[in-house]
Write a structure and sequence with these properties.
- The protein is built from 16 helices and three strands.
- With about 375 residues, the protein is an all-alpha fold.
- The protein folds into two domains: about 230 residues, Citrate Synthase, domain 1 (Orthogonal Bundle); about 100 residues, Cytochrome P450-Terp, domain 2 (Cytochrome p450-Terp, domain 2, Orthogonal Bundle).
- The protein has a three-stranded antiparallel sheet with strand order 1-2-3.
- A hairpin with a 4-residue loop joins strand 1 and strand 2.
- The longest helix has 23 residues.
- About 45% of the residues are buried.
- The structure holds coenzyme A (COA).
C-alpha cells in the first residue's frame, strides 16, 4: 500500500467494505466465491445456482432453483421503450457497451417492482436480452424472442443466433459467467456500492457499474487481447510482435492486475474451460497459439518490467473462450456484465443491509487566499 499522510492513490490497499461474497488473495492467487474455491463452483454450477448462492448465502434446493429459473425466464422480454431505444442506438452505430449502459437505465420507468429482490431478478433476466437483442439489431436482424425452456446461459446463446447451442458451449458459458460473477471490491462493484449507499436505487447502481466496467483498465481488455493473438497469427511470430509492442511502450492486454501478483486463478479456470470446449466443439490450433502467446508474453513482461510480477489476468482466456463460443469481440465486455450483474446486485444487498454512506475525503493541493480580481481588470 502506498499512502502519504492517509492518502492512497487509487485507494490501493484500503479496505472499504466487509463482504461474504468473495475473497481475493492476490499473493496466493486464490479466489473464493461465497465459500467455494472458484474452480469448484464455476465448473459445476449453473449460472442460476450461482445467482441464488450470492443472493441468499447458500445453494438452492431443487424447488428453489426451479422457481428462480422460471422467474428469470418469465422476466426476460424487454419493455417496448428499451427495444425502441436499442433500435435507435443501432441506427446511430452506438457501441454495444454504450447501448447496454443506456438500455439498462430504461429498465425502471418508475413503475417497476418496489422490493429489491424482485428488481434484481428483473435486471439479471433482462441484461442478457439487451445484449443479445442489440447484437442482432446491429447486424440488421430482428431480435430472437427468449426461449423460456432454456436456462440463462443457453438462452443467451440462443438469442444471439436463433439456434439451440451444444451442451459443450452452454457449459463453457456457464463456467465463464460463474467465473466473473464477483471479485471483491473491483471498480464497478465499488461504483455500485457507492450509488446504493446514498439510498439510490438498484437500476441506477447497475447503470453506473456498467459505465465503470466499460473502461479498458477494467472490463474492456478481452477484445484487444484477442486482437493481439490474431495479429500474431502463428506461434513463431509471438516473440517479435510482443517485443515490438513492449518497446513501443504499449501494454499487453490480458496481463497484469492491481491485486494478483501471481497468475489470476480465473485465467486457470477459463483456460481449462476453453481447452475442454475447443476439444469438443472448436479450433484447437487457436487454443495452442493462445497458450504459446501467453507463455511468451509472461516471459517478456518479466524482462521489460522486472519486479512488477505481471501475469496472465482473467481477460486473456475470457477472450479465447468467448470467441470459441461464437461471440464477436464487441460483445465480450457486455457478456462480462451479464455475469457480473449478479455480483453487483449481491454487493448492493450487503451495502443496503450493513453499509454506511461512502464518503471519503480529498486533500486540497490548490492555492490558498487568492486575491479576487474584478472581471474588468482580468
Ligand atoms: N503490459 C505492459 N506493462 C504493464 C502491463 C501490461 N499489461 N500492466 C502493467 N504494466 C506496467 C506499467 O506500465 C507500469 O510500469 P512502469 O512503472 O514502468 O511505468 C507498471 O507495470 C505498473 O502498472 P500500473 O498501471 O501502475 O499498475 P496497476 O495496478 O494500476 O495496473 C492494470 C493494473 C490491470 C490496469 C494493468 O496491469 C494493465 O493495464 N493491464 C492491461 C489491461 C488489462 O489486461 N486489463 C484487464 C484487467 S483484469
Amino acid at each position: 500500500m502506498s499512502t502519504n499522510n492517509g492518502y492512497a492513490p487509487g485507494l490501493e490497499g484500503i479496505v472499504a467494505a466487509e463482504t461474504e461474497l468473495s475473497h481475493v488473495d492476490g499473493l496466493k492467487g486464490e479466489l473464493i466465491i461465497a465459500g467455494f474455491p472458484l474452480a469448484r463452483l464455476a465448473t459445476n454450477a449453473t449460472f442460476e445456482e450461482t445467482v441464488f448462492l450470492l443472493w441468499h448465502g447458500r445453494l438452492p434446493n431443487q424447488q428453489e432453483l426451479a422457481a428462480l429459473k422460471n422467474e428469470l425466464a418469465a422476466l426476460r422480454p424487454l419493455p417496448p421503450a428499451t427495444l425502441t431505444l436499442l433500435r435507435e442506438a443501432a441506427d446511430a452505430h452506438t457501441t454495444p457497451m454504450d447501448a447496454l449502459r443506456m438500455a439498462s437505465a430504461t429498465l425502471d420507468l418508475g413503475s417497476g417492482p418496489q422490493d429489491h429482490l424482485a428488481t434484481a431478478k428483473m435486471i439479471v433476466a433482462r441484461l442478457a436480452t439487451i445484449v443479445a437483442s442489440y447484437h442482432r439489431l446491429r447486424q440488421r436482424q430482428e431480435p430472437v424472442a427468449p426461449n423460456p425452456a432454456l436456462g440463462h446461459a443457453a438462452n443467451f446463446l440462443y438469442m444471439l443466433t436463433g439456434e439451440a447451442p451444444s451442451d459443450a458451449r452452454v457449459r463453457g458459458l456457464e463456467t465463464y459467467l460463474n467465473t466473473v460473477v464477483d471479485h471483491g471490491l473491483n471498480a464497478s462493484t465499488f461504483a455500485a456500492r457507492v450509488i446504493v449507499a446514498t439510498q439510490s436505487d438498484l437500476v441506477s447502481a447497475i447503470t453506473g457499474a456498467i459505465g465503470a466496467l466499460k473502461g479498458p483498465l477494467h472490463g474492456g481488455a478481452p477484445g484487444p487481447a484477442l486482437d493481439t493473438v490474431f495479429e500474431i497469427g502463428t506461434a513463431d511470430r509471438a516473440e517479435a510482435v510482443l517485443q515490438a509492442k513492449l518497446e513501443a511502450g504499449e501494454r499487453l492486454m490480458g496481463f497484469g492486475h492491481r491485486v494478483y501478483k501471481v497468475r489470476d486463478p480465473r485465467a486457470e479456470v477459463l483456460g481449462a474451460a476453453a481447452e475442454k470446449m475447443f476439444q469438443a466443439d472448436g479450433d484447437m490450433a487457436l487454443y495452442e497459439l493462445a497458450k504459446s502467446v501467453e507463455e511468451t508474453a509472461v516471459r517478456l513482461l518479466a524482462i521489460h518490467k522486472p519486479g512488477r510480477n505481471l501475469q496472465t489476468n482473467v481477460e486473456f482466456y475470457t477472450a479465447l473462450l468467448l470467441h470459441g463460443l461464437g461471440l464477436d469481440t464487441d460483445i465480450f465486455t457486455p457478456t462480462f456484465a451479464i455475469g457480473r450483474t449478479a455480483g453487483w446486485l449481491a454487493h448492493c444487498f450487503e451495502q443496503i443491509k450493513y453499509g454506511r454512506l461512502i464518503r471519503p475525503q480529498s486533500r486540497y493541493t490548490g492555492v490558498m487566499n487568492r486575491e479576487w480580481v474584478p472581471l474588468a481588470e482580468r
